[in-house]
């Protein structure tokens, strides 16, 4: 199967996975419309989301991926599972008396990958987040056969978090496409320098490209293509992302 896609994970919850996934979706959609990206459709998938009451709620990742990515997909189709408790999927499901049918979730992902479009998948939290009592988000990314893009914070502490995430990805047999540092406080020269030094350490010790540094900006929409997205897209190795 021609697996054309990218799994977007993070070093934590709240690091900007949705922001990056939506920004990529909007940019790739524009490139596709201009005939500069070899996929007719750009689609997003949120396998499981927690902390929201419904996939159509404006706070839901499924809603934000569609809105910020400028996508026509129905948010209710973007997310497969939605749980109210803001917890790891395993626990959020258990709070409702359910267990997640991992095989069905994986099959849904493989179906979505099968139509030859380009699929951006957003995980839940980081890679070591439980989906069931035996499966983590890392298992899902590995068994979908997709490379991961790691969204990490830009400041102090991110080197450890990012290198741990890279190590788990590789231990799980997942290719790491790159790292994006999010929330670079561009207020002072010292901040900018420390972000560059964090990127240098992550690249050196993780043997992974830091493909983007997101400034902390308020606006997020599918209309504009911020510079960081264009830089990131040019730095990614598309031969691996478009499937051999
Ligand atoms: N570069 C940025 N500039 C301004 N706000 C940002 C930026 N990145 C993320 N945010 C905001 O920070 C919050 C967390 O970002 P986001 O929801 O993308 O994280 P996440 O990793 O997807 O979280 P979750 O684990 O819940 O899915 C959101 O309110 C988002 O709008
Ligand atoms: C609720 C949050 N926004 C995410 N949907 C789920 C994050 C799970 C994190 C689990 C953990 O690492 O402790
Ligand atoms: Mg998110």
From TrEMBL:
Named cofactor requirement(s): Mg(2+)
Enzyme Commission number(s) of this protein: 6.3.3.3
InterPro entries on file: DTB_synth_BioD, P-loop_NTPase
Pfam families recorded: AAA_26
GO biological process: biotin biosynthetic process
Origin superkingdom: Bacteria
Residues reported in the UniProt entry to bind Mg(2+): 18, 61, 122
The entry's keywords: ATP-binding, Biotin biosynthesis, Cytoplasm, Ligase, Magnesium, Metal-binding, Nucleotide-binding
An annotated Gene Ontology molecular function: magnesium ion binding
Pathway: Cofactor biosynthesis; biotin biosynthesis; biotin from 7,8-diaminononanoate: step 1/2
Keyword Signal part of the UniProt annotation: no
Sequence positions that bind substrate: 50
SUPFAM superfamilies named in the record: P-loop containing nucleoside triphosphate hydrolases
Active site: 46
Keyword ATP-binding applies: yes
Assigned protein family: Belongs to the dethiobiotin synthetase family.
Record note on quaternary structure: Homodimer.
Protein known as: ATP-dependent dethiobiotin synthetase BioD
Organism: Paenibacillus hemerocallicola
Top-level taxonomy: Bacteria, Bacillati, Bacillota, Bacilli, Bacillales
Gene name, Swiss-Prot/TrEMBL: bioD
